[in-house]
Amino acid sequence: MTDVGENTTTAGRIAEAIGERIISGALPPDAPLRQDHVAREFRSSHVPVREAFRQLEAQHLVVAVPRRGVRVAPLDTKSVKEIAEMRAALEVVALRNAAAKFTSAHLARIEVALIEGDNAETVQEFELANRAFHHALVAPCAMPRLLASLDGLQLANSRLVFAMARNAGWRPRPSQDHRVILQALRARNIEQACSLLARHIQTIERLALPAA
């Protein structure tokens, strides 16, 4: 019998690999994920596969549908709205709690992520920098449950980034929204930074993504 520690490690490896496929679009919305197939691919038992599915569900990347099994989460306009509104609410709470703890080193990390996003030459580079920027904004809040929820929502948002790139193309451009958020934080104008962040995230609701 495989011990619990090994199952956890295997589950994490499986969840990461499948999550990357979902985020990149290699696994499209509503695609079925079958335990037997996944276990065979990763040469594992069903136990870590089930745990991997639970992790992916917590990250909003898959859904368990009665009588249909586990499937890739939808990416329709309703899902886009839900992701945006949840992120806007939770990320603002995290930023408000993090901002009082910001040091010059924290602000420097935010700026590094901003610059990396501005200099990105591919959508993959931009997505990593965008994720790093938003993580750096909230990391000092020291609220692990909130941060775990935001990590999952940010992964769901990454799907939107790649979907937009597939649907409308992607070209390098600086993020003025990120820049003004950082400016407000440097000026210690926390409420303005929170307002700018919420507005920045909620722009996702205006995306005209096709129904899954």
TrEMBL record:
**Residue stretches making up the HTH gntR-type domain:** 8-75
**Domain of life the protein comes from:** Bacteria
Q: Which GO terms describe its molecular function?
A: DNA binding; DNA-binding transcription factor activity
Membrane-spanning parts:
none
Question: Which keywords appear in this protein's UniProt record, sorted alphabetically?
Answer: DNA-binding, Transcription, Transcription regulation
Q: Which PANTHER family match?
A: TRANSCRIPTIONAL REGULATOR, GNTR FAMILY, TRANSCRIPTIONAL REGULATORY PROTEIN
This chain belongs to the protein called Transcriptional regulator, GntR family
Gene source species: Bradyrhizobium erythrophlei
